[in-house]
Design goal:
Length: about 350
């Protein structure tokens, strides 16, 4: 399917509130313990959907018109039934992308993908050496495992993309990662989006680049993308808070079956086990379509408002309801870090 056809399908789905894109967090469990992980702290606090539940949920999503699925985690392959769930998704006709750290792509998975290939596999890199992997993930073997998976996937002709969090422990390794991707003929992107953990712990922010470093990295790195840019294509949805497709043509489902706008915006969470996919999606879409507007002052100081975008720089910033919800406690509230990134960009362009 051509890019223009996908764009047209995306906008049609948004206008008709069809859940075209879905992300399924099959588990929050992971064989890594990354220092910046926003899911850490919740891995054992939920009851994951069973194999049969995930398959039934996929069936309901197919009936709703969902076409594109991302299977992710945690590390999705920690689940012993990953191959079974992947096969069910592929055989139901979903266009499947898999997110992975690349450390658990073994012979069984490769044999499955040789006959039922995914649309693509996105592998996240955490450095260019065992030492960096040890410091960031706690798993020194992760780098060698990811390199082996990359080469074996390419041998099978499977599309692979590489990505990395643009954060302080990896800053010196990012150029080498970009060169690695180029040498393998695959795309590479880096994302400086680090967030507080879902349980409220703010320790990941200690690894965040400064606004000046973010802007400098963007200026010299063609693979740079902020997290909002990595989301599904923007759609013309007027003055909604969600300027991406979250809740209009896209959704996230967590390991226990809760529908949410996206992986980081969980202000609204509707339980599939209680509601079923039709009602859960309808409720999420209704909430995401709401225009949340408030000029209520924040306690943070004079002139601050609870209305992200009121500064007039909305069109040029990385405003995201999920970022606001995780870091500022409300989907419409400005986050100083991203405000400073935007003001630094505008200053370089000579915009007051």
């Amino acid at each position: 399917m051509s890019t223009s056809a996908v764009d047209q399908l995306t906008q049609t789905a948004a206008a008709r509130r069809i859940p075209l894109y879905g992300t399924l967090e099959l588990t929050w469990r992971c064989n890594f313990r990354c220092v910046h992980c926003y899911q850490d702290g919740l891995r054992d606090r939920h009851r994951e959907l069973s194999t049969s539940e995930w398959m039934a949920l996929m069936d309901e999503l197919a009936d709703l018109g969902c076409t594109f699925l991302v299977l992710t985690g945690g590390e999705a392959m920690v689940r012993k039934d990953f191959a079974q769930l992947y096969r069910h998704a592929a055989e139901r006709g979903f266009v499947v992308t898999v997110f992975s750290n690349g450390s658990m792509i073994g012979d069984d998975i490769l044999a499955l993908w040789a006959t039922l290939p995914p649309r693509k596999v996105e592998i996240t890199l955490y450095g260019m050496s065992a030492e960096t992997y040890q410091a960031v993930t706690g798993q020194p073997d992760g780098f060698a495992q990811a390199m082996s998976a990359l080469d074996r996937l390419l041998e099978l002709g499977i599309r692979v993309e590489l990505k990395a969090p643009a954060m302080r422990p990896l800053l010196k390794d990012l150029p080498a990662m970009a060169l690695l991707a180029r040498s393998r003929g695959v795309d590479f992107r880096m994302d400086p989006g680090l967030f507080p953990r879902l349980d409220g712990n703010r320790s990941p922010l200690a690894h965040r680049l400064s606004p000046a470093e973010v802007v400098a990295l963007e200026a010299k790195s063609p693979g740079f993308t902020e997290s909002i840019d990595a989301c599904f294509a923007e759609v013309p949805l007027g003055d909604r808070v969600y300027r991406c497709g979250a809740g209009s043509n896209a959704f996230n489902i967590d390991p226990s079956g809760h529908f949410e706008a996206c992986a980081i915006s969980r202000a609204t969470s509707l339980d599939w086990r209680e509601l079923g996919a039709v009602e859960a999606w309808a409720g999420l879409a209704q909430e995401a379509a709401t225009v949340h507007r408030s000029a209520a002052p924040l306690r943070g100081g004079p002139g601050a408002v609870d209305d992200c975008g009121a500064c007039g720089a909305r069109g040029g910033c990385s405003r995201c309801p999920g970022k606001s919800w995780l870091e500022a406690g409300a989907i419409q509230r400005p986050v100083p870090h991203y405000c400073e990134v935007t003001s630094t960009k505008l200053a370089l362009k000579g915009v007051a």
